Amino acid sequence: MDSDSIVEARGLNHWFGSGDVRKQALFDVNLNLKRGSFTVLMGPSGSGKTTVLTLIGCLRAVQDGSVRLLDHELNGASEAELVALRRRLGFIFQAHNLHESLTAAQNVMMGVQVHGGVPDRLAVEAATHALGLVGLADRTTYLPANLSGGQKQRVAVARALVASPALVLADEPTAALDKDSAAEVVDLLKRMGEARGTTTLLVTHDNRILDRADRILTLEDGRIVKVEERE
């Protein structure tokens, strides 16, 4: 694995179902994510984008091929190894997945507390600082019900980045947002990632945000059909 790579996938295949209903979802997928890069994986619904994301994110077992994440081979890895690696990642989803009964700060604190052994005082400080970085310093005590859609996703960005993960995986984070909010969230994610040296893989079919990417991978019917490097 290249020393400058965070993720390297080679010959990745994946199937769903079994027997007569077994269907192949990914075909010989190869990709490499360099440290600090911002990569967009795009394609139509059903093309396999989320499957790629969940395999890289240790949320689904690798069946065939190789995925090396942070110098660890995922094919054949134990559940304990996968759990340990997941804790080094940040996740952002289309449905921001905030706990409705927790404040913005408490939601972000969960991104610190998942590592265990962090004193509450330090977790509060880290969460408050992260919310300030995403422009929500005056919303730390707000419940999600009192935040706009864009603000909720900014909380999700803060939660994903609060522990300075090596890799952030974002699955359609702008799908439910208007154009301005979508641009704001992606710009925040890229800016904070650059400041912390974080690698980002963002899955989307939202053409409005493609100009933010360092590289665009296009997936169709389970195959990467185009790789576009951007200045």
Describe the structure.
- By secondary structure, the protein is an alpha/beta fold.
- It has helices spanning 49-56, 79-86, 104-113, 120-133, 149-161, 179-196; strands spanning 5-16, 23-34, 38-42, 64-69, 72-73, 89-93, 167-171, 199-204, 215-220, 223-229.
- The strands form two sheets. Strands 6-7-8-3-9-10 form a six-stranded mixed beta sheet, sandwiched between helices.
- It starts with a strand and ends with a strand.
Q: In total, how many beta strands?
A: 10
Rounded mean pLDDT is 89
**Radius of gyration, in angstroms, nearest whole number:** 18 Å
Question: Low-confidence runs (pLDDT<50, min 5 residues)?
Answer: none
Helix and strand sequence: EEEHEEHEHHHEHEEE
The number of distinct helices, counting runs of at least 4 residues, comes to 6
Helical content (DSSP H or I, runs of 4+): 25-40%
Strand content: 25-35%
Shape: globular
| Major sheet | 6 strands, mixed
End-to-end separation in angstroms reads 25 Å
From the helix content, strand content and strand pairing, which structural class follows? alpha/beta
Please state the oligomeric state of the protein chains shown: single chain
Strand line-up across the major sheet: 6-7-8-3-9-10
